[in-house]
Design brief:
Chain lengths: 115, 138
């Protein structure tokens, strides 16, 4: 565990930066402005055409995966400190990083199989 | 007595004061710290929403339409409103912390904190504008 900790911290830090720079605008549009009708949601054909470009796929992989690892790292320590679960260290780490890994694999698979 | 004594990480006989699970509510800066840590939950939530959208897009126009309709549920709108506040809180605290996490030097002189924080906000504005510009064209 000690040997990969710097790597996990790097993922945490990169994911935090991606989430800070990109999540507010994406969340505001997708979560609020489009559903509430303030702005018009992009049409399927437009998004699908965007997705055919490799740069968009890479962008989405980064946008989904890195923030998940950011969450895994931060939430892990929130559980330790906040709920005083120091005795469950290993289990919590496996669950958190495991979930981030599952999300990453799922998005990579979806992006890979787009027709 | 076994030959191999069982050591515990925290010696049970030492006196340790019990701390309530709500320790972070007793002090404002502790509360801010825990709230900042909890922003990660909303970050993960939105990453999952985007994964869900991606899946809908790979399945076709009907699935995408269903996705858009689902997000109109009041529950989702409420959660997204809360999540937006938390994600903003994450962004602001993250940008403000960068000069503490990394020291940038230019020509042997340390770049002042305000310049690093300022360039973060400038990048934020630029990137957000670009994303909105692309998504609103469709």
């Amino acid at each position: 565990m000690d040997r990969i900790t710097p790597f996990l911290w790097l993922l945490f830090s990169a994911g935090g930066t991606v989430a800070a720079l990109l999540f507010p605008v994406h969340l505001f549009l997708t979560g609020l402005a489009f559903p509430l009708g303030w702005l018009e949601a992009p049409r399927y054909e437009f998004l699908h055409r965007l997705l055919t470009h490799p740069v968009t796929r890479l962008y989405l992989l980064v946008l989904i995966s890195l923030p998940l690892f950011h969450w895994a790292h931060r939430f892990r320590y929130t559980l330790y400190d906040g709920l005083q679960l120091k005795h469950l260290t290993a289990l919590i780490a496996v669950l958190c990083y495991g979930a981030a890994l599952v999300g990453t694999v799922m998005s990579a698979y979806l992006l890979w199989t787009i027709p | 007595m076994s030959a191999d004594p069982h050591y515990t990480l925290y010696h049970p006989r030492w006196y340790r004061r019990r701390v309530s699970v709500w320790w972070w509510l007793q002090n404002r800066s502790y509360t801010r710290f825990v709230l900042r840590e909890l922003t990660s939950v909303f970050v993960a939530f939105f990453a999952v929403v985007y994964l869900w959208q991606l899946r809908a897009l790979t399945q076709g126009p009907e699935a995408y339409g269903q996705f858009l309709a689902r997000l109109k549920a009041p529950l989702f709108e409420g959660v997204h409103a809360v999540a937006f506040v938390f994600v903003l809180f994450h962004a602001i605290t993250w940008f403000n912390l960068t000069p503490k996490a990394m020291v940038v030097r230019m020509r042997g002189k340390r770049v002042p904190d305000w310049a690093i924080v300022g360039s973060n906000y400038a990048a934020w504005l630029l990137v957000s504008g670009a994303v909105a510009f692309i998504l609103l064209r469709g």
